[in-house]
Write a structure and sequence with these properties.
The complex is a heterodimer of chains A (196) and B (225). Chain A has 196 residues and is mostly helical. Chain A has one domain (2-187). Helix content of chain A is 72%, strand content 0%. In chain A, helix 1 packs parallel to helix 7 (130-159), helix 4 crosses helix 5 and helix 4 (73-95) crosses helix 6 (114-125). Chain A starts with a helix and ends with a helix. In chain A, 48% of the residues are buried. With 225 residues, chain B is mainly α. Chain B has one domain. Chain B is built from 11 helices and 2 strands. Chain B has a two-stranded antiparallel sheet with strand order 1-2. In chain B, strand 1 and strand 2 (160-161) form a beta hairpin. The longest helix of chain B has 31 residues, at 124-154. Classes of the chains: A mainly alpha (196), B mainly alpha (225). At the A-B interface, helix 2, helix 4, helix 6 and helix 8 of A face helix 2, helix 4, helix 9, helix 10 and helix 11 of B.
Chain lengths: 196, 225
């Protein structure tokens, strides 16, 4: 249980996918203009991360690893994620239209979100068990959400402020991201201390 | 030949994928703590880009339109696997330094974007030149980022001690936060030199976003317009 908590909190705060691993920076900068679209996007990411982990993990340990096909994992994983995103879209559209409306527009973008492929590959690299992998995926997704929503709030302020011309737009956004990232550095070491 | 040079220079400077188009930011920020890794990552991406662009332009007529994106992704993933093997065999150190980001080349927007925009509509020769231009442009951007961060953050350049003895290296620049900061400042400088606003980031500039869904257009396109 303690290990699980460490993985969860670690993935949310210390090794935040966006701010310390730089995974999913494109959606982070692209969809963080409004708080509610940031929320929708991150919900979709959490969902796909969990599902992708649930599917890729058994396939890797049950099918690829025993047959010495580990090297195929990139091809297989990305196909699974692409397929999965497509499937989720179809199912949601048919059965839960309200959720589809909320997530729908963000779903296709997730295939090329490196955080999703990243989390499935990291689970394998870190030799997590299935339960640990799921917790890591949840933590990664929640961390993504935290970063996105925090940043959406900050960004609305940036857009309203006076800046040197060269820094307007993207550069200012990146510098602000740096400051947010610094604040997350402060969490390093907290996790180990928390569970002693 | 003149057209070829134009295609090549287009990727290198005018439409530099990182500094102007703002694509492929994840690897640009993650591996550029030292200049050497930036070059390694850039060249690995160039290899994948060249391979996928050439193959896709060769078989573009055989791929049905409806399944072209998955097909592109599989081709790209194949080349990423190959470069992974080559790195492991010949440059194990670099392989370790790049870690998971080497595998993540597969989801680098630049590659899918060039496949979709360029290789699937142009001949082999032009596609190869486009891949080289874009790849070297990417490498150049990563090299600049890596050099600045290594020089300020560690006081070395390409592993050689440069300013380490002159002033205390500022650790901030090799942390992830420093990556965002240096990238932001470099883009501001590039924008100042070329005297134009860098396009605002995000999925609306990632051409694969248009291919993969309406999201990029709906969320950001309207606000900018």
């Amino acid at each position: 249980m303690k290990d699980m908590m460490i993985i969860l909190i670690g993935a949310i705060l210390v090794d935040n996918f966006v701010l310390s691993k730089f995974m999913g920076v494109c959606p982070f900068l692209g969809v963080s203009k409004k708080v509610n679209s940031a929320f929708g996007m991150s919900l979709a990411v959490i969902f796909v991360m969990l599902m992708a982990t649930a599917v890729t993990y058994p396939i890797y340990t049950g099918l690829l690893a025993p047959n010495g096909l580990e090297y195929l994992r990139i091809v297989v994983f990305i196909l699974i994620i692409a397929l999965f995103v497509q499937m989720v879209e179809i199912v949601l559209k048919r059965f839960i239209p309200s959720l589809y409306k909320a997530l729908g527009v963000y779903l296709p973008l997730i295939t090329t979100n490196c955080a999703v492929l990243g989390v499935t590959l990291l689970n394998i690299d870190n030799e997590y068990t299935f339960a640990e992998s799921m917790v890591n995926a949840l933590g990664g997704g929640l961390g993504f959400m935290l970063a996105l929503i925090l940043f959406a709030g900050i960004r609305q302020k940036i857009d309203a402020s006076e800046l040197p011309k060269a820094f307007k737009g993207m550069p200012a956004t990146l510098v602000a991201a740096a400051i947010v990232s610094v604040s997350f550095v402060g969490f390093g070491g907290v996790v180990e201390g928390m569970f002693q | 030949m003149k057209g070829g040079l134009k295609v090549f220079l287009n990727g290198l400077i005018k439409e530099n994928p990182v500094l102007v188009l703002m694509l492929g930011m994840c690897p640009s920020l993650a591996v550029t703590t030292v200049a050497k890794n930036g070059i390694g990552m850039g060249l690995a991406t160039t290899f994948v880009l060249l391979g996928s662009n050439v193959v896709i332009s060769l078989i573009k007529k055989l791929i049905p339109k409806a399944v072209r994106l998955p097909s592109f992704i599989v081709i790209i993933a194949g080349f990423v696997t190959i470069i992974g093997f080559l790195m492991k065999a010949y440059l194990p150190e670099l392989d370790k330094a790049l870690g998971i980001y080497l595998s993540l080349i597969v989801v680098n927007c630049i590659i899918l974007a060039r496949a979709e925009i360029f290789a699937s509509q142009n001949g082999v020769g032009k596609s190869a030149l486009d891949a080289l231009g874009m790849g070297f442009g990417f490498t150049l951007a990563l090299f600049i980022l890596g050099s600045v961060r290594e020089l300020l953050g560690a006081g070395t350049w390409m592993g050689l001690t440069v300013t380490k003895d002159l002033f205390e290296p500022i650790h901030f620049f090799v942390t992830p936060a420093g990556g965002f900061f240096v990238f932001g400042v470099i883009i501001a400088i590039v924008g100042m030199i070329t005297n134009r606003q860098p396009k605002s980031a995000g999925c609306q500039n990632c051409p694969s976003a248009q291919a993969c869904g309406r999201a990029g257009l709906e969320n950001t396109g309207k606000e900018n317009a």
